[in-house]
Specification:
By secondary structure, this protein is mainly beta. It has one domain. The chain has 1 helix and 11 strands; from the N terminus they run H-E-E-E-E-E-E-E-E-E-E-E. The strands form 2 sheets. It has a 7-stranded antiparallel β-sheet with strand order 6-7-5-4-3-9-10, with no helix packed on it. A 4-stranded antiparallel β-sheet has the order 2-1-11-8, with no helix packed on it. Strand 3 and strand 4 form a beta hairpin. It is globular. 16% of the residues are buried. This is DUF1850 domain-containing protein.
Length: 149
């Protein structure tokens, strides 16, 4: 009888817990005005999103690490092979491994990450170790964005 009460209590509490917590999603979509969606997956607080590409000028990999915080994305770390104009210069934590520079503690908040999609630079978005969307799934030269909705 006690086991049944526990199951019943859990079954009754589940809708209350889930209705109080809105379900968020990571979306890759076209920027306005079209807003076509190319991918959507569930997102939770603290999920880490890796956004990477090959730099169009120097041809080296660049990866940014974002954390889901409410309906925003917080840039925590950036990894790159070369540094110079346009790279963060005041990161609280900087480390080096071979030719890679990792800058962390950036704590920059964005409502969305926006870019002009190019298949030539191999844009990749990885969440939980899995590729969110194939680079070919977004049209070439599309004004794209990644957002939490």
């Amino acid at each position: 009888m006690i086991a049944r009460r526990g199951v019943l209590a859990a079954a009754l509490a589940l809708p209350l817990l889930t209705s109080a917590t809105p379900v968020a999603a990571l979306v890759v979509r076209e920027q306005r005005p079209g807003r076509r969606e190319f991918a959507r997956i569930p997102a939770g607080q603290g999920d880490i999103v890796e956004f990477s590409w090959i730099h169009s000028v120097d041809g080296t990999p660049w990866t940014e690490f974002y954390r889901v915080a409410g309906r925003e994305l917080v840039l925590d770390c950036t990894e790159m092979s070369l540094t110079g104009a346009g790279t963060p210069s005041s990161a609280p934590e900087v480390s080096y491994s071979g030719d890679q520079t990792r800058m962390c503690g950036l704590d920059l908040t964005f409502d969305a990450v926006r870019w002009i999609h190019s298949r030539a630079v191999d844009h990749r978005i990885v969440v939980g170790g899995a590729l969110l969307i194939a680079p070919e799934a977004v049209p070439h030269h599309c004004r794209a964005e990644l957002a939490v909705v």
